[in-house]
Amino acid sequence: MKKVIVIKMGGVASDNLTKTFFIQVEQWQKNGNKIVIVHGGGHYISEMMQRLGVPVNIQNGLRVTTEETLKITQMVLIGQVQPMITTHFQQEGFSVVGLNASCGQIITGSYLNQKNLGAVGEVEQVDTELLEHLLERDHIPIIAPLGLTKTGDWLNINADQVACKVAEELQAEKLYLLTDVPGVKKENQWLDELTIKEINDLKKTNVIKGGMLPKIESAVTAIRGGVKEVHITNQLHVSGTKIQETEVYA
Protein backbone atom coordinates (compact mmCIF):
# COMPACT_ATOMS: atom_id res chain seq x y z
CA MET A 1 0.00 0.00 0.00
CA LYS A 2 1.44 3.37 -1.05
CA LYS A 3 1.33 6.77 0.61
CA VAL A 4 1.30 5.37 4.15
CA ILE A 5 2.80 7.35 7.03
CA VAL A 6 3.41 5.47 10.27
CA ILE A 7 3.75 7.48 13.48
CA LYS A 8 5.15 6.04 16.68
CA MET A 9 4.15 8.07 19.71
CA GLY A 10 6.60 7.82 22.58
CA GLY A 11 7.57 9.52 25.80
CA VAL A 12 4.49 10.94 27.45
CA ALA A 13 1.93 10.25 24.72
CA SER A 14 -0.43 13.02 25.84
CA ASP A 15 2.37 15.57 25.26
CA ASN A 16 2.38 14.65 21.55
CA LEU A 17 -1.33 15.30 21.10
CA THR A 18 -1.14 19.03 20.46
CA LYS A 19 -3.20 21.09 18.04
CA THR A 20 -0.16 21.26 15.76
CA PHE A 21 0.05 17.44 15.77
CA PHE A 22 -3.55 17.07 14.62
CA ILE A 23 -3.21 19.81 12.00
CA GLN A 24 -0.28 17.89 10.50
CA VAL A 25 -2.20 14.58 10.49
CA GLU A 26 -5.19 16.27 8.86
CA GLN A 27 -2.95 17.85 6.19
CA TRP A 28 -1.37 14.51 5.37
CA GLN A 29 -4.81 12.93 5.02
CA LYS A 30 -5.96 15.73 2.71
CA ASN A 31 -2.91 15.00 0.55
CA GLY A 32 -4.04 11.39 0.20
CA ASN A 33 -1.83 9.78 2.83
CA LYS A 34 -3.03 6.94 5.05
CA ILE A 35 -2.02 7.22 8.71
CA VAL A 36 -1.13 4.47 11.18
CA ILE A 37 -0.31 5.14 14.85
CA VAL A 38 1.74 2.88 17.11
CA HIS A 39 1.85 4.03 20.72
CA GLY A 40 4.24 3.26 23.52
CA GLY A 41 3.55 3.82 27.17
CA GLY A 42 6.79 3.34 29.06
CA HIS A 43 6.32 6.44 31.22
CA TYR A 44 2.85 5.35 32.30
CA ILE A 45 3.92 1.74 32.89
CA SER A 46 6.85 2.80 35.10
CA GLU A 47 4.57 5.18 36.98
CA MET A 48 2.03 2.43 37.68
CA MET A 49 4.74 -0.06 38.69
CA GLN A 50 6.14 2.45 41.19
CA ARG A 51 2.67 3.02 42.62
CA LEU A 52 2.24 -0.73 43.07
CA GLY A 53 5.73 -1.18 44.51
CA VAL A 54 6.96 -3.31 41.61
CA PRO A 55 10.67 -2.83 40.69
CA VAL A 56 11.42 -1.28 37.30
CA ASN A 57 14.27 -3.05 35.51
CA ILE A 58 15.47 -1.72 32.14
CA GLN A 59 18.26 -3.48 30.22
CA ASN A 60 19.64 -1.94 27.00
CA GLY A 61 16.49 0.13 26.57
CA LEU A 62 14.15 -2.87 27.05
CA ARG A 63 11.90 -3.44 30.08
CA VAL A 64 12.52 -6.78 31.78
CA THR A 65 9.00 -8.21 31.81
CA THR A 66 8.05 -10.62 34.58
CA GLU A 67 4.56 -12.12 34.74
CA GLU A 68 3.53 -9.31 37.11
CA THR A 69 5.09 -6.63 34.91
CA LEU A 70 3.30 -8.05 31.86
CA LYS A 71 -0.09 -7.78 33.58
CA ILE A 72 0.62 -4.15 34.52
CA THR A 73 1.81 -3.43 30.96
CA GLN A 74 -1.38 -4.88 29.46
CA MET A 75 -3.54 -2.95 31.92
CA VAL A 76 -1.81 0.38 31.25
CA LEU A 77 -1.48 0.10 27.46
CA ILE A 78 -4.95 -1.26 26.72
CA GLY A 79 -6.86 0.24 29.64
CA GLN A 80 -5.26 3.67 30.00
CA VAL A 81 -2.97 4.86 27.21
CA GLN A 82 -4.85 3.62 24.15
CA PRO A 83 -8.27 4.93 25.26
CA MET A 84 -6.67 8.30 26.05
CA ILE A 85 -5.17 8.52 22.55
CA THR A 86 -8.27 7.32 20.69
CA THR A 87 -10.44 9.77 22.64
CA HIS A 88 -8.17 12.69 21.68
CA PHE A 89 -8.35 11.71 18.01
CA GLN A 90 -12.12 11.31 18.11
CA GLN A 91 -12.53 14.72 19.75
CA GLU A 92 -10.58 16.19 16.81
CA GLY A 93 -12.95 14.53 14.34
CA PHE A 94 -10.81 11.59 13.18
CA SER A 95 -12.13 8.07 12.67
CA VAL A 96 -9.89 5.72 14.66
CA VAL A 97 -9.78 2.06 15.66
CA GLY A 98 -7.81 0.92 18.71
CA LEU A 99 -6.00 -2.39 18.17
CA ASN A 100 -4.04 -4.80 20.35
CA ALA A 101 -2.67 -8.31 19.93
CA SER A 102 -6.02 -9.93 20.69
CA CYS A 103 -7.62 -8.20 17.66
CA GLY A 104 -7.24 -10.99 15.11
CA GLN A 105 -3.68 -11.51 16.43
CA ILE A 106 -2.56 -8.39 14.58
CA ILE A 107 1.00 -8.83 15.88
CA THR A 108 2.58 -12.28 16.06
CA GLY A 109 5.88 -12.43 17.90
CA SER A 110 8.41 -14.62 19.63
CA TYR A 111 10.48 -14.34 22.81
CA LEU A 112 13.58 -12.21 22.43
CA ASN A 113 15.50 -13.70 25.37
CA GLN A 114 13.08 -15.29 27.81
CA LYS A 115 15.77 -16.20 30.34
CA ASN A 116 17.10 -12.65 30.76
CA LEU A 117 14.19 -10.44 29.66
CA GLY A 118 11.08 -12.50 30.47
CA ALA A 119 8.05 -11.82 28.27
CA VAL A 120 9.84 -9.34 26.00
CA GLY A 121 9.19 -10.18 22.37
CA GLU A 122 10.14 -9.29 18.84
CA VAL A 123 7.74 -8.99 15.90
CA GLU A 124 7.56 -11.90 13.49
CA GLN A 125 4.45 -10.99 11.50
CA VAL A 126 1.93 -8.15 11.15
CA ASP A 127 -1.63 -8.70 9.89
CA THR A 128 -1.47 -6.17 7.07
CA GLU A 129 -4.76 -7.38 5.61
CA LEU A 130 -6.65 -5.99 8.61
CA LEU A 131 -4.67 -2.74 8.54
CA GLU A 132 -5.20 -2.23 4.81
CA HIS A 133 -8.93 -2.90 5.22
CA LEU A 134 -9.12 -0.12 7.84
CA LEU A 135 -6.92 2.28 5.86
CA GLU A 136 -8.98 1.87 2.70
CA ARG A 137 -11.96 3.11 4.70
CA ASP A 138 -9.99 6.12 5.99
CA HIS A 139 -9.79 4.84 9.56
CA ILE A 140 -6.61 5.47 11.55
CA PRO A 141 -5.46 2.25 13.26
CA ILE A 142 -3.98 2.92 16.71
CA ILE A 143 -1.86 -0.06 17.74
CA ALA A 144 -0.59 -1.08 21.19
CA PRO A 145 2.91 -2.68 21.20
CA LEU A 146 1.81 -6.07 22.46
CA GLY A 147 2.10 -9.34 20.59
CA LEU A 148 1.05 -12.95 20.86
CA THR A 149 3.19 -16.01 20.24
CA LYS A 150 1.82 -18.73 17.98
CA THR A 151 0.86 -20.61 21.15
CA GLY A 152 -1.04 -17.63 22.60
CA ASP A 153 1.46 -16.18 25.10
CA TRP A 154 1.34 -12.39 25.45
CA LEU A 155 4.52 -10.44 24.71
CA ASN A 156 5.68 -6.94 25.59
CA ILE A 157 7.36 -5.59 22.43
CA ASN A 158 9.39 -2.43 22.02
CA ALA A 159 7.05 0.12 20.39
CA ASP A 160 9.76 1.38 18.04
CA GLN A 161 10.24 -2.14 16.71
CA VAL A 162 6.48 -2.58 16.25
CA ALA A 163 6.22 0.73 14.40
CA CYS A 164 9.18 -0.10 12.18
CA LYS A 165 7.82 -3.56 11.35
CA VAL A 166 4.36 -2.14 10.58
CA ALA A 167 5.96 0.49 8.34
CA GLU A 168 8.06 -2.16 6.61
CA GLU A 169 5.12 -4.51 6.01
CA LEU A 170 2.99 -1.66 4.63
CA GLN A 171 5.95 -0.30 2.60
CA ALA A 172 5.35 3.12 4.16
CA GLU A 173 6.78 6.23 2.56
CA LYS A 174 7.64 7.76 5.93
CA LEU A 175 7.99 6.63 9.52
CA TYR A 176 8.07 9.13 12.37
CA LEU A 177 9.50 7.96 15.69
CA LEU A 178 8.32 10.60 18.15
CA THR A 179 10.43 10.75 21.28
CA ASP A 180 11.35 13.26 23.98
CA VAL A 181 14.39 14.63 22.12
CA PRO A 182 14.62 16.48 18.76
CA GLY A 183 16.70 13.77 17.10
CA VAL A 184 20.14 12.17 17.26
CA LYS A 185 22.88 14.21 18.90
CA LYS A 186 26.59 14.25 18.09
CA GLU A 187 29.06 16.57 19.81
CA ASN A 188 26.25 18.75 21.23
CA GLN A 189 24.67 19.16 17.80
CA TRP A 190 21.37 17.69 16.59
CA LEU A 191 21.89 15.94 13.27
CA ASP A 192 19.59 16.72 10.32
CA GLU A 193 20.34 13.52 8.40
CA LEU A 194 21.98 10.14 8.90
CA THR A 195 22.80 7.31 6.53
CA ILE A 196 23.09 3.67 7.59
CA LYS A 197 26.88 3.83 7.20
CA GLU A 198 27.06 6.88 9.48
CA ILE A 199 24.87 5.11 12.03
CA ASN A 200 27.28 2.16 12.11
CA ASP A 201 30.15 4.55 12.77
CA LEU A 202 28.25 6.29 15.59
CA LYS A 203 27.44 2.95 17.22
CA LYS A 204 31.10 1.94 17.15
CA THR A 205 32.10 5.18 18.88
CA ASN A 206 29.30 4.81 21.46
CA VAL A 207 27.57 8.04 20.36
CA ILE A 208 24.34 6.08 19.88
CA LYS A 209 23.58 4.13 23.07
CA GLY A 210 20.95 3.43 25.73
CA GLY A 211 17.31 3.92 24.78
CA MET A 212 18.29 5.43 21.41
CA LEU A 213 20.01 2.19 20.37
CA PRO A 214 16.94 -0.04 19.84
CA LYS A 215 15.19 2.93 18.19
CA ILE A 216 18.00 3.38 15.68
CA GLU A 217 18.41 -0.35 15.05
CA SER A 218 14.68 -0.68 14.35
CA ALA A 219 14.86 2.31 12.00
CA VAL A 220 17.72 0.74 10.05
CA THR A 221 15.77 -2.53 9.72
CA ALA A 222 12.76 -0.57 8.41
CA ILE A 223 14.88 1.29 5.83
CA ARG A 224 16.43 -1.97 4.63
CA GLY A 225 12.92 -3.43 4.47
CA GLY A 226 11.73 -0.78 2.03
CA VAL A 227 10.61 2.24 4.12
CA LYS A 228 11.85 5.32 2.26
CA GLU A 229 12.77 7.48 5.23
CA VAL A 230 12.59 7.45 9.03
CA HIS A 231 12.42 10.60 11.16
CA ILE A 232 13.43 10.72 14.82
CA THR A 233 11.92 13.88 16.30
CA ASN A 234 9.91 15.27 19.20
CA GLN A 235 7.37 17.13 17.04
CA LEU A 236 5.44 15.76 14.09
CA HIS A 237 5.78 18.93 11.99
CA VAL A 238 9.57 19.03 12.49
CA SER A 239 11.78 16.72 10.43
CA GLY A 240 14.24 15.99 13.25
CA THR A 241 16.96 13.53 12.25
CA LYS A 242 16.09 11.93 8.90
CA ILE A 243 17.50 8.44 8.32
CA GLN A 244 17.80 7.00 4.84
CA GLU A 245 19.78 4.30 3.04
CA THR A 246 22.40 6.48 1.43
CA GLU A 247 23.25 10.13 1.14
CA VAL A 248 21.16 12.04 -1.41
CA TYR A 249 23.00 14.57 -3.55
CA ALA A 250 21.22 17.47 -5.17
UniProtKB/TrEMBL annotation:
One GO BP on record is: L-arginine biosynthetic process via ornithine
Q: Which residues form the Aspartate/glutamate/uridylate kinase domain?
A: 3-234
Origin organism is: Candidatus Enterococcus dunnyi
Q: Name one Pfam family in it.
A: AA_kinase
Q: What is its EC number?
A: 2.7.2.8
Q: In UniProt terms, what function does this protein have?
A: Catalyzes the ATP-dependent phosphorylation of N-acetyl-L-glutamate.
Which superkingdom is the protein from? Answer: Bacteria
Binding residues for substrate, per the UniProt record?
41-42, 63, 156
| Keyword set includes Ubl conjugation | no
Q: Where does it live in the cell?
A: Cytoplasm
Q: What pathway does this protein act in?
A: Amino-acid biosynthesis; L-arginine biosynthesis; N(2)-acetyl-L-ornithine from L-glutamate: step 2/4
What NCBIfam families does the annotation carry? argB (TIGR00761)
Q: Which UniProt keywords apply?
A: Amino-acid biosynthesis, Arginine biosynthesis, ATP-binding, Cytoplasm, Kinase, Nucleotide-binding, Transferase
* Primary localisation category: cytoplasm
The name on file for this protein is Acetylglutamate kinase
Reaction it catalyzes: N-acetyl-L-glutamate + ATP = N-acetyl-L-glutamyl 5-phosphate + ADP
Any one Gene Ontology cellular component term annotated for this protein: cytoplasm
What residues form the membrane-spanning segments? Answer: none
